[in-house]
Fold:
Amino acid sequence: MNKDLYSALGVDETSSQEELKKAYRKLAKKYHPDANPGDKKAEERFKEISEAYDILGTREKREKYDQIRKGGGDFSWDDAGGQASSSFGGGGLADILRSMFGGGGFGTGGDFGQRRAARHTVVVSVPFTTAALGGTVRANLEMPTMCPVCMGAGGSGEETCSQCGGSGRVQQGQMVMPCPACSGAGNTFKDICSRCHGTGSVISSETMDLNIPAGSDDGSVLRLATPSRKTVMVKLRVNPDKFFRRDGRNVHCTVKITAPQAVLGTKLKIRTLDSKIVLKIHPGTQPGTVLRISGKGVPYRGAKGDQLVHVEVSLPTSLSEEEKINWEKLSGQKA
Structure:
């Protein structure tokens, strides 16, 4: 389907900024994913109009786009994500807009709640063994989504920001910074939205089962689609384990044995990541000995690490008279 950005919003190039905004809000409300759960076509249409307004809704971007548009060429939206291409020489329209407007390019630089939500990261706690071996974690994901009252605008009665003159940027010394008065939007409002307090987004909550890949480490990030088809980045926070410590594909643990067990040898039942096994302590085991259990570590790319068992020998801190005599006999000293 070939469309230019004005056609995507159902307006023409003579429309005012206010008319553009009204057209966008009307279409955004109609095709918003929250109002059309599971409707793929509505989701694609919402992306299309959001990306169109991302350019046309800002005067400076609109002027640059109009310059490109006057040069001719057809504009099309592909199925992969609403990216636009053109018959202009060189790269497609997405590349042209990316070079002109900066950042990730077409459809990623707007200041509306839905686009901000797409980059939001949610931190989810994961048990140590689940992260190591993989599994499922049920999580409650709280994330920002477009405010349903102001449709992401943040308020009404839009005015050009007096501090930055609508550019969204101010200069501080040698640096150009986002305007503190309008947070880089280039405009302010006479009436701030009472629902989102001017941010353009509200917090929504969704519960879903997360599939944790085996070998996930603390800080790993997963890109997921929620049941309402929102995209969210999930950062894993792996809970520490009382027994295990992780070092790459290997896991470490510590066991304590008594002096007689170290001298005579013994058998201990210890935990592994997926079961319990009997570990043989050989006679004469020294403090600080490290025993390796092959294949009981973290799986990674078809292989597994090992479990390293650190042996500590516990010595008595106080002795009964009988115990003292026995220790003196062992040492060869006279009782």
Notes: The chain has three domains: 5-110, 121-154+193-238, 245-317. Residues 40-56 form the longest helix (17 residues). Residues 245-317 form a domain with the HSP40/DNAj peptide-binding domain fold (CATH 2.60.260.20). The two ends are 99 Å apart (CA to CA).
